[in-house]
Specification:
It is built from three helices and four strands; from the N terminus they run ααββββα. The protein is an alpha+beta fold. It has a domain at about 55-145.
Length: about 150
């Protein structure tokens, strides 16, 4: 009888050992499938690429033009108002120079950006006057990153 009990205990112990080994293998397999844990300080934030709408560039140009041409009371721009149209769903934010006090009037100068491009187009009747070189010079300087009002 003691031999039978010993035999049963041996078989039972071997079975438990096999089950334990099998559970250990399964846990090792599952652990290998899991993603490695990366400390928060090492993780890179998920970010979407910024789409160039031209809005930032045109906002900077409009603010500089307003400060240098209109708010400074520059005599060359005394008869004009600046009308920003930066909230454009067409992907072409722009600002206009119009006759002072007549925001609804036909623009005399249009400065227009384009989404995905560093190009800034200018057009309008003021470019056919003696102010052309001044307008183009100021805008070229500001597009290059300068915030200075005079050359």
């Amino acid at each position: 009888m003691v031999g039978t009990v010993g035999l049963l205990l041996g078989v039972f112990g071997a079975a438990l050992g096999s089950v334990a080994a099998l559970i250990g293998l399964m846990l090792a397999f599952l652990a290998s499938c899991a993603s490695p844990v990366v400390p928060p300080s090492v993780q890179k934030p998920i970010s979407t690429p910024k789409v160039d709408t031209g809005l930032d560039r045109m906002e900077r140009l409009a603010l500089t033009a307003n400060r240098c041409w209109i708010k400074s009371r520059d005599p060359a721009f005394n008869g004009y108002s600046l009308a920003p149209e930066l909230s454009s769903f067409s992907g072409r934010p722009r600002f206009l120079l119009v006759p002072k006090g007549r925001m609804e009037a036909r623009p005399l100068l249009v400065v227009e950006g384009r989404a995905g491009s560093a190009d800034v187009e200018t057009y309008g009747p003021l470019l056919d006057t003696s102010m052309r070189s001044r307008l183009e010079g100021d805008l070229a300087r500001w597009k290059a990153g300068s915030g200075e009002c005079s050359a």
